[in-house]
Amino acid sequence: MHPMLNIAVRAARSAGNVIARTFEQTDKIEIEAKGSNDFVTNVDTQAEQIIIDTILKSYPDHSIISEERGIIAGKDADYQWVIDPLDGTTNFVKGIPHFAVSIALKVKGKLDQAVIYDPIRGELFTASRGKGAQLNNVRIRVNNMKELNGTVLATGFPFKQKASIDAYLGMFKDLFAKTADMRRAGSAALDLAYVAAGRIDGYFELGLKPWDTAAGELLVIEAGGLVCDFTGGNNHAKSGNTVAANARVLKNILTDIRPHLTPAMKKL
Ligand code: IPD
Ligand code: CA
Ligand code: CA
């Protein structure tokens, strides 16, 4: 295993253990609203600190961008870690056991290493650039569905951007008519990991942040899939509008998304 992936795994497991332990002791969870329908808990920040400490202990000069702490500019800007200490906070605070730690490393702007760890199921998804993707050390691949017919797609509702609801529901309606079913499980990181593992046939969501998708994107690519924005371009890290699937399913998802794009979505 690449030494930097090894550190990422160590960080994800340590943070995941704290998250899983606190999940059993709900009286220890302190919830704070940080925006509209957007929550942070003491566990998010505790897990984040564990991850940052683990990374900086081995790589003190590296840079970090992390959901709750923001940017930590290190001496070495070529190495940037992108961290979501707890993806699926709403599930966590509601007692729904579906959330994950997500850690990616970008080298000179390119995704290089990725870990998504589900501490409840003990599932560790890993990927290294050019080396494939694994679940608990076993190679995973996106599935080979061709049409939307028979697929199960994952999505996220735009609960922080309710202004986009009509556009989103238009996309949802057209896709839902063709797919077997849809899932809104509540963790973008796990949605992407599940696409990589072939459990889910495709995924789309708007308004995501870089830490939601960085690790999941490398997992999908290394598992043989594609990730793009709503116009089929490469601006998803910026716009947050993200689609992931194998090449054929991705093309079909984009065909149904396109008619519903708002002018703002087309520009991004
Ligand atoms: C959220 C989850 C959710 C997605 C949201 C994200 P958080 O991350 O990934 O599935 O729909 O857009 O913000 O806030 O739980 O880290
Ligand atoms: Ca997140
Ligand atoms: Ca989070």
Describe what you observe in this structure.
This protein has 268 residues and is an alpha+beta fold. The chain folds into two domains: 3-140, Fructose-1,6-Bisphosphatase, Chain A, domain 1, CATH 3.30.540.10; 152-267, D-Maltodextrin-Binding Protein, domain 2. It has helices spanning 3-23, 42-58, 89-94, 165-178, 188-196, 210-222, 236-239, 247-257, 263-267, and strands spanning 31-35, 38-41, 62-66, 70-72, 76-87, 100-107, 110-118, 123-128, 133-135, 138-140, 152-155, 181-183, 202-205, 226-228, 242-245. The strands form three sheets. An eight-stranded mixed sheet has the order 4-3-5-6-7-8-9-10, with helices on both faces. A five-stranded mixed sheet has the order 12-11-13-15-14, with helices on both faces. A two-stranded antiparallel ribbon has the order 1-2. Strand 1 and strand 2 (38-41) form a beta hairpin. Helix 1 (3-23) packs antiparallel against helix 2 and helix 5 (188-196) packs parallel to helix 6 (210-222). The chain is globular. The relative contact order is 0.13. The mean pLDDT is 95. Bound molecules: D-MYO-inositol-1-phosphate (IPD) and calcium ion (2 copies). Residues 84, 87, 188, 212 line the site of one calcium ion.
Give the low-confidence spans. Answer: none
Q: What is the strand tally? A: 15
Provide the CATH superfamily of the largest domain.
Fructose-1,6-Bisphosphatase, subunit A, domain 1
Structural class of the helices, strands and pairings? alpha+beta
First-to-last CA distance: 36 Å
Ligand names: D-MYO-inositol-1-phosphate, calcium ion
Main β sheet profile: 8 strands, mixed
Helical segment count: 9
Bin the strand percentage. Answer: 25-35%
Number of domains: 2
- CATH class division of the largest domain: Alpha Beta
Spell out the helices and strands N to C.
HEEHEEEHEEEEEEHEHEHEHEHH
